[in-house]
Design goal:
Blueprint (H helix, E strand, L loop, with lengths): L1 E2 L5 E2 L6 H13 L10 H10 L21 E6 L1 H5 L8 H13 L4 E5 L1 E2 L2 E2 L23 H10 L5 H13 L7 H11 L3 E6 L6 E2 L5 H5 L4 E3 L5 E6 L4 H17 L5 E4 L4 E2 L18 H11 L11 H23 L7 E5 L5 E2 L3 E2 L2 H6 L3 H6 L5 E4 L9 H11 L5 E7 L4 H14 L3 E5 L10 H10 L4
Parallel strand pairs: 3-4, 3-18, 4-7, 7-11, 8-12, 11-13, 13-16, 16-17, 17-18
Antiparallel strand pairs: 1-2, 5-6, 9-10, 14-15
Helix pairs in contact: 1-15, 4-7, 9-11
Amino acid sequence: METSLTGRILPVGAATAKDKLSIARQDWFVMDIAQDACNRRQFLCAAGAAGCSLAAGSAVFALPPGDEKLILSAPLTHSDWMLKPGIPWGVDGVRHMLDVCKSFGLSRIYWRVLDGGRAMYRSKIVRAEGKWDGDNFWNPKSDGDRQLSERFSGGVSSEKRKQIIDKFQSLDYAHFDTFAAAVEYGHQIGLQIHAWVSINEDDHGWGLTSDFARAHPQYRWVRRDGRPYHSQMSFAFAEVREYKLQIIRELLQGYPLDGIFLDWIRTGDVRDNPQTDGDGVANSGYETPLVEEFKKRFGVDPHQVPNNDPRWVQMRAEPQTSFMRECRKLLDSQSRKIPLAVMVAHPWHYRGMQDKIDGSLNGLLLDVKTWASEHLIDAAVAAGYYRAGGNASLAWKSLFEITSGQVDVWTYAWVPQNVADFATALAIARQLGARQILFWEADYFDDRSDASGLKAAMTRQDKA
């Protein structure tokens, strides 16, 4: 894990715009997409020929015609963008960010509302982002933590680290509701604004621990060897699911948002890495309620079966599915349709220092197949960061197969450096049959050298 140009902690290999370009080119050109034998239309035809039927009422998303415009979108972290020089605090800064997004042809923005365990919206449940804990990623107190932070931050100087944390500390989200400003102005200029909720973490790096996690250490994740995590809250406890659901409820009640985007891949304190075993299977989930339930169902202690035992993996995924059912029920109770999208893993995923994640189910204990079959989600995207052999196209196909064409699967791409990069990303999305591209992450649009050419190409969606 390293840091972006703005100071955001990123996985190794995705630290800078230059690195991102290298990764993107590697991912995009390693395969001949013209010879792709498993695109959307072919998958559906094969499923039909095999006698597979999709559940009644499911949303099978049709392959768009070649000349139809795709939905271009991006997540946006206000605090990251504020680290760029000359960005004003307040409404003017929010307007600048959204004007930039609009000028590049984006139509959907996923506005980050949580940073670790802190809120960047007006919340009565989560403490406002602003002051970090005294011991944090940018200012570690122990020698061991300092060495770990330096490994993750890729040689960022002590002076730069101080500048980053000083800037973060100056951002007072208790007295400025960025999300309210984004929704209001975004709607004025024709943008959809969705709430990006990092639902699976109660810290980020470290130093942004939620008050809930601090008050309830008994709800933390537990490893196979019995060691608890620093701050990760287990959905095996009804109290944790209700706390997370309160956040969603507060957003729905407080803002005329256009959707909820649940980010499941961000998982808190980096001092807990690796969070998987050598095979990429989650090493967590050994909380007492799950252990006791496994004993009850199967008559054996889960510590006595392999960590990747399918029964044990499936049981550990059940609490997250319970939460998704509760979340879907909450959204369906609203007076208008609120789409629910998720960001999940793929078979080539990794975390931090190339720690293997064996897909969503084994690696993150997320039963995305069930989420799709029960119509709990409307859309899904497989996050970037690929180990050897993986790329954005393969990740998309894997997720599309898991969800059986029942949800809208987006492609994932880094923000393009130039027109050629965008044309490649567009061609891949069209070839796969995706209706939407998620460009990671919006603040990078603000420093492209060929901004005018890229804006024109993205607005027209040029093929070349």
